[in-house]
Amino acid sequence: MHFIVCIKQVPEGTEVEIDEEKGILKREGVDSKLNVYDAYALEAAVALKETYGGTVTVLSMGPLQAQDVIKEAYTLGADDGYLLSDRKFAGADTLATSYALSEAIRRLPPADVIFCGMQTTDGDTAQVGPGIAELLELPHASYVSKISGMEDGCIFVEADMGDGIEELRIGLPCLLTVTKDLNQPRLPSYKLKKATQNRKVNVWDSKALEGADPSHFGLDGSPTQVERIFPPPKAHSKELWQGSPDALSQKFYAKLKELKYL
Ligand SMILES: Cc1cc2nc3c(=O)[nH]c(=O)nc-3n(C[C@H](O)[C@H](O)[C@H](O)COP(=O)(O)OP(=O)(O)OC[C@H]3O[C@@H](n4cnc5c(N)ncnc54)[C@H](O)[C@@H]3O)c2cc1C
Question: Is the dihedral of CA 172, 75, 34, 165 positive or negative?
Fold first, then answer.
């Protein structure tokens, strides 16, 4: 069995800073970590490897610093890792990201199951997983919250559709995007940390994807263009009121009327 897990390095914390001039998220010089949903995807792949045998390959696209999340994945049970890193991939929207990742997957040993997180904590679109599956013409399921097992060339999963759970049998090869209900990711292993400290990350530039259409990479291959990006205005004006409960409640009532809530 060969499991491929797409993992993305995202800014640490919930406060994503925005470069309003360039219309992009500020990623350089920002502390980064493995996208949380991708940890669940990796755990699922490693658990299946432990049950059914095989190997786990992780794949990422991003700047060279994204090698860190691949090395982290080695300490969590991944066997091999690839990073797509080239200026030509920069400025990609979700379609161009899905295209580059799918072309890399075509050049890796054939996968039985490709895993993605259900979304990222920065871009948050949840489009890349289904995008890869469509480009590779693979069956796919999103929001997978349970994997029951694999048998006769199929995988049995439950997908949480919000208003109900779908039980699915999907033919291999396929792509799954996963939720946090799927499992409890293991902690990095000291033994694996020692064993994998010299393991290389395979870095592929755009030339490594020879045969792919370079006009579909990066900004050139991105049909969506950001017109403007800005943080929502912060409603921070505060007033401190003091007085008796009667006076305060009258003042509050008057304020609500003034703001047309009443
Ligand atoms: C018009 C436009 C311009 C953009 N320009 C830039 C830019 O200049 N620079 C920039 O850094 N970003 C840019 N982005 C953001 C970029 O498109 C997204 O970060 C990227 O496509 C992934 O989308 P997402 O974060 O919404 O992933 P989601 O679809 O929410 O992620 C789902 C899953 O897909 C997988 N995945 C997603 N991205 C990757 C990845 N890179 N490597 C491996 N696996 C992945 C992971 O498994 C993840 O859990 C731009 C987006 C748009 C729409």
Answer: positive
Tens-place pLDDT, residues 223-260: 998 888 877 777 777 889 999 999 999 999 999 999 88
Q: Where are the domains of the chain?
A: 2-221
Check if 24 has its Cβ closer than 6 Å to any atom of ligand 1: yes
108: left (phi over 0), alpha (psi -120 to 50) or beta: beta
DSSP summary character for residue 181: T
What is the residue with the minimal CA distance to atom 9 of ligand 1?
91
Are the C-beta atoms of residues 62 and 87 closer than 8 Å to each other?
Answer: no
To test the pocket of ligand 1, the residue of 7, 67, 93 to mutate (highest count of ligand atoms within 8 Å of its CB) is 93
Q: Which CATH number fits domain 2-221: 3.40.50.12580, 3.40.1160.10, 3.30.310.50, 3.40.50.620?
A: 3.40.50.620
Which residue puts its alpha carbon closest to atom 41 of ligand 1? Answer: 61
Q: With H, G, I as helix, E, B as strand and everything else as coil, classify residue 100.
A: helix
Please identify, by atom number, the ligand 1 atom nearest to the C-alpha of residue 115: 47
Kindly report whether the global pTM for this prediction surpasses the value 0.70. Answer: yes
Q: Cα(45)–Cα(48) distance, rounded to whole angstroms?
A: 5
How far is the C-alpha of 90 from the C-alpha of 25, rounded, in Å? 12
